[in-house]
Amino acid sequence: xxxxxxxxxxxxFEGALxxxxxxxxxxxxxxxxxxxxxxxxxxxxxxxxxxxxxxxNYRKEWRNTSTHDYKLFFTEQEALLAIASxxxxxxxxLEQIIxxxxxxxxxxxxKSLSKQVIDSIDNYNDLPFDKKVFSLLSKSYEFMHLPDxxxxxxxxxxxxxxxxxxxxxxxxxxxxxxRLNGESGERADLILSSDNKKVLVEIKRSSLLRHYGDKATxxxxxxxxxxxxxxxxxxxxxxxxxxxxxxxxxxxxxDGPYVTYINPxx
Length: 266
What we know:
Blueprint: H1 2-24, H2 34-43, H3 49-68, H4 76-110, H5 114-119, H6 129-143, H7 154-168, E1 173-179, E2 187-194, E3 197-205, H8 206-227, E4 231-237, E5 244-248, E6 258-264
Parallel strand pairs: 3-4, 4-6
Antiparallel strand pairs: 1-2, 2-3, 5-6
């Protein structure tokens, strides 16, 4: 029975990879073997590194062992560990899948709004790249579509915001959940870039800023330092807001690093 548990967690593992292949790579998994799908997702740099770490751990500890040793028998404790391992993998992978699905949805939905959004920003095409980003983030409160529910997760919001920016201005490259150069494995929510110019974006829920406002600004400054990006954004999201505004923290050095705040106003 416990050995059968491992075989069933293997099925869950392979099924999760097929879903990831379908959503993240936009490809049909039906004619691919599980190993081919694994190799494509890993070698194509499609999966986030923490997802890959969880995938590698499950494959090494459970899938490979149960596949290659047909005489192997597992204990109750090992079966429980396998369930925990594949569950962790699926949860982490599901977060990335949801983020990407939301990104795809909002990109398609917002394409028809691109001109309207651009026209609502004064002299958008003449703005420096950083101010284009600040303006688009501010307009997302008004034009981006949020699910009809009371509260969404930050990674859901992250996917929607990525899709919105990509749809309105395709010249901007959007990377989400980006691992930085710090020793502790810090990750930026978004890095937006165009022609070697970059803006780092960190997103926080409005309710948290009442207690952690200064820490959030410090986090953005720290991320800017280790990534060597001079333009950082602290963006506050609130599901009920329909307007936004941006303002920049004043610094004594005009060309030095600075933080811009994107806030809801309604």
